[in-house]
Amino acid sequence: MKPHYLFLTILCFNAFGQSQKEVLFKRKFLPNTEYVTTMLTSSKSEVKFDGPSEMLENLKTNGVQNPILFEGSNSVISSIKTKDLLPDGSFDAVMTYPKVKSTQTQNGQSTQKDSPLDGMRIEGKYDSNNIFKVDTIIGNNVNEALRNTLTSTLENVQEQIKFPDYPLKPGSTFNQTLPMTIPVAGVQNVQIVIKTDYLLKEIKGDLATFDITQTVELDMDIEGSTITASGNGTGVSQYSISKEFITKYESNLTIELTILMNQLTISSEVVSKSDMSVEIK
Fold it and tell me: What pTM was computed for the model?
């Protein structure tokens, strides 16, 4: 075989091999492993009121600033340590929250909030289906209401990315829809739906990289008012094939809301950013 034909054959073979690389993605915790997660979130929002001068003056008289500016940030470091695999396919696990910080700013005035999660220890077990069951919650200011809330949240938490039950290769796409509630001053909470599209961009070694595109739609009606909601976002996520776990998730999302009620227009823009990284030991 001539050298240039041999080169073309090798090139085509490599290209074919790359195009056929498929992975069945699934997220699960493994026994005898530690997962250290750092989650940073921040948001900025502005709420404006517009309408007849007497209505705006009434808001001012009642102490409502126009516009209202909010900023918030959260920093959470958590650890999950799993233990030996048991004969029934389950394994014990301990969750700890060594560092939890929260700061909120409204119209220039900042406050720091203590979180009941700070320093908390949660003991439980992952069953054979990799579902966590809470056994014990240890921490300061843990009352029965908080205990019930945490237990329900941890045992019913949805996966950050719900992968399809079939293999994916570079270029494959899938989507996920999740509900979200946004509080708006002066009216009831606004229900929206965030649709997230995932594109498997590439697989290099042990890491698979996904591009993220998000769109926002309204998911409610308020009697006696007109409401619109829209938004979009982008991000990136990485997945460790050997560990079967998401090790990075970043997203930037902008949401715009407009509510017309009793001649008063309330408009809000929320810009949020989240950055999660997981170290697996």
Answer: 0.82
